[in-house]
Amino acid sequence: MQKPDCAWNLSDLASVPQNGIKVMSTFACGGGSSMGYKRAGCEVIAANDIDPEMAWHYKLNIKPKHYYLCPINELLTKELPPELFDLDILDGSPPCSTFSMAGSREKAWGKEKHFREGQAKQVLSDLFFDYLDLVGRLRPKVAIAENVKGMILGNAKGYTKMVMARFKELGYRPQLFLLNAADCGVPQRRERVFFCAVRNDIDVPLLKLAPTHRWISAGEATKDVQELTDDEKVETKPTPLDLKWWKLTKPGNDYGDSCRAAGIKEAYFNHVVWPDKRLHRSLTATTEQYTHWKSCRKLTYREWRRLGSFPDDYQAKTDKIGKYMIGMSVPPKMTEVVARAVCEQWLNIKHLITLKKVA
Predict the structure, then answer these.
(1) What is the pLDDT of residues 254-280, one digit of tens each?
(2) pLDDT at 349
(3) How far is 77 from 54, CA to CA, in rounded Å?
């Protein structure tokens, strides 16, 4: 079966026309945002993350010139190569669980958290300002930071105002955008905020950023990867909970909906039957909570890659780790939309050629 237009491979990046824009990515995770910049024709020359597992996968797939496995605040005093002081874009996606509407929010602000194995304890609500301090040190032409929609809701608005004020103190003109990944060609409804700030000495107009890509359903995006391999049949087998509730749950709903319909106390609301046509779900790092829309089974890693707009040839140590990284990462096609707008409107780059597979 022919691959859908939304499918792509890392090998396609070799044919993308280069625009000369140099990028460094912080909180780089598995490289979701970095692949977006590369799809837009930028060169990602450096990256940073605190997680050794993420670092291993990033270096394997993205192959950066420089990689810094350390807390971001160590980059404020570490000796760095001259080219990092001449960046076009400094990218960052500070860990955002303390601002997620699904998390503890205010209760977690200002407190240390051991975010994942292999990492030091960090105050997650401070990490955005560590990123901003690095902006102050490196002075890139443009700074782009991504985070959850929860940053512009409720009490978190005050935090966001402080971020905007800090950008201005550093000599940048910031703008804030709320984007939906579905509008960027990603087959999931994933809303994220993007801070885009240009240095004051660069005379450019306000950035216009309003993607209107055709929405792509999960069924369309994964139509050619539905036949399971023997390994996938084992790895995606349903749990007893799935066997009980999947058949009672419509695609797009969760097992909690079925519990409520059955007249019992609502539970299992984190267990979702992924929708094949309607886009109103977002992938998370909880890898075992999603079941397929047509078969009582978990989603495969191949399906996760498509739903996260990751390349088909992205390599991971295990499918579970691969799914986790995709759930944690910015979808590449989402960052690509932001990168193209910034390159064309603020950095005077015109993309004259667009490959069908990469567009």
Answers:
(1) 999 999 999 988 788 889 999 999 888
(2) 62
(3) 23
- Taking alpha carbons only, the member of 189, 180, 209, 175 closest to residue 338 is 209
Joined together, the tokens standing for residue 310 give 């990751």
Strand order in the sheet with 43-49: 66-69, 43-49, 22-26, 89-92, 142-148, 191-199, 172-180
- Closest of 77, 74, 78, 72 to residue 90, by C-alpha: 72
Backbone angles phi, psi at 348, to 5 degrees: 55, 45
| Residues contacting residue 323 through CB under 8 Å, at least 6 positions apart | 287, 299, 301, 304
Task: Say what the pLDDT of residue 280 is.
Answer: 81
* pLDDT, average across residues 214-235: 96
In this structure, the strands spanning 22-26 and 43-49 are parallel
Residue 101 has pLDDT above 60, yes or no: no
Asked whether the predicted pLDDT for residue 112 surpasses 60, the reply is no
Predicted pLDDT of residue 156:
80
Average pLDDT of span 155-168: 91
pLDDT of residue 125: 62
- CB 105: neighbour CB atoms within 10 A? 18
Question: How many Cα neighbours within 13 Å face the side chain of 219?
Answer: 11
HSE-CB of 224 using CA atoms within 13 angstroms:
12
82/79 Cα distance (integer angstroms): 9
**The model's pTM:** 0.90
Token representation of residue 217: 């359903």
User: Which residue, among 202, 93, 97, has the nearest Cα to 145 in the 3D structure?
Assistant: 93
**DSSP E strand boundaries for the chain:** 22-26, 43-49, 66-69, 89-92, 112-113, 122-123, 142-148, 172-180, 191-199, 272-273, 290-291
Q: Tell me if 181 sits within 8 A of 190, measured CB to CB.
A: yes
